[in-house]
């Protein structure tokens, strides 16, 4: 089983800090023949109703010029979440897209690890939960750039094979560099880390196993089934993940296959802990 398939028991009533990760595809994903307005309405309602304490989104679209599309107001301000929003592209006063971390608990520090100006990057937020502080990383690594629409049959696979292979190799090299920056940043975190997001890489990859050496994977420790997270022709890909430091205990992990509002499925996990999450001892001032 391992990284591919799991049959962990399900905790139907988990207690602890709940974290959601979702590539929301600019809140406007629609399959061929679908209605984008309906999808936007549905995904917005689902995100508002989702009870997670912390919500991390990739490919997040924000429009300050149109009240009906002010996602920060609808999903954070009006629902009691503080937020950390990092813009990758666009005008910060009008329309933009990037990454976001929403939290019911106070965010005492936040920032970006890196961004590429091409819809990819990593941000973090230090979130105070009662007497403890936990660091949440939201990642969107370099895309695989797979033309899934052209791979719907054998002829399409043959036609796109060389181009797809070249893109995959290029993406692997870039993600390896991004991973190095991220791992160094996490190693300097004063708190326990939870790393979520769209990694654009599969199990058995360099990215996955490098992270697996230093962190636990929530699907492996608490997931069930195959846990595929890609909602397109290449449906057998698990490229969205939640990793966490060993000091944390996972109570539940879920892949929300019933939520069909993006080209990814949401994933969520609930954590608890017994020891202090601070890695560096606090030195009291005299």
From TrEMBL:
InterPro entries: Endo/exonu/phosph_ase_sf (IPR036691), Endo/exonuclease/phosphatase (IPR005135), TDP2-like (IPR051547). Residues 20-264 form the Endonuclease/exonuclease/phosphatase domain. Its cofactor is Mg(2+); Mn(2+). Keywords: DNA damage, DNA repair, Hydrolase, Magnesium, Metal-binding, Nuclease. This is Endonuclease/exonuclease/phosphatase domain-containing protein.
């Amino acid at each position: 089983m391992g990284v591919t398939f799991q049959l962990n028991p399900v905790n139907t009533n988990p207690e602890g800090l709940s974290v959601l990760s979702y590539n929301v595809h600019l809140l406007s994903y629609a399959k061929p023949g679908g209605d984008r307005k309906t999808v936007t309405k549905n995904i917005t309602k689902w995100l508002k109703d989702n009870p997670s304490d912390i919500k991390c989104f990739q490919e997040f679209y924000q429009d300050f010029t149109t009240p009906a599309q002010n996602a920060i107001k609808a999903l954070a301000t009006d629902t009691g979440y503080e937020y950390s929003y990092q813009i990758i592209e666009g005008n910060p006063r009008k329309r933009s897209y990037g990454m976001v971390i929403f939290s019911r608990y106070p965010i005492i520090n936040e920032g970006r690890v890196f961004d590429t100006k091409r819809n990819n990057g990593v941000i973090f937020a230090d979130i105070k939960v009662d007497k403890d502080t936990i660091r949440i990383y939201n990642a969107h690594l370099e895309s695989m750039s797979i033309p899934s629409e052209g791979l719907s049959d054998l002829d399409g696979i043959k036609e796109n094979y060389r181009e797809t292979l070249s893109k995959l190799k290029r993406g692997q090299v870039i993600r390896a560099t991004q991973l190095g920056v991220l791992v160094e940043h996490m190693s300097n975190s004063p708190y326990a880390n939870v790393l979520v997001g769209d990694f654009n890489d599969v199990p058995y990859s360099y990215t996955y196993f490098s992270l697996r050496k230093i962190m636990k994977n929530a699907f492996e420790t608490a997931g069930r089934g195959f846990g595929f997270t890609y909602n397109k022709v290449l449906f057998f890909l698990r490229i969205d993940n939640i990793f966490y430091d060993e000091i944390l205990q996972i109570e539940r992990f879920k892949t929300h296959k019933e939520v069909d509002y993006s080209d990814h499925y949401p994933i969520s996990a609930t954590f608890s802990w017994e020891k202090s999450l601070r890695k560096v001892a606090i030195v009291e001032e005299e």
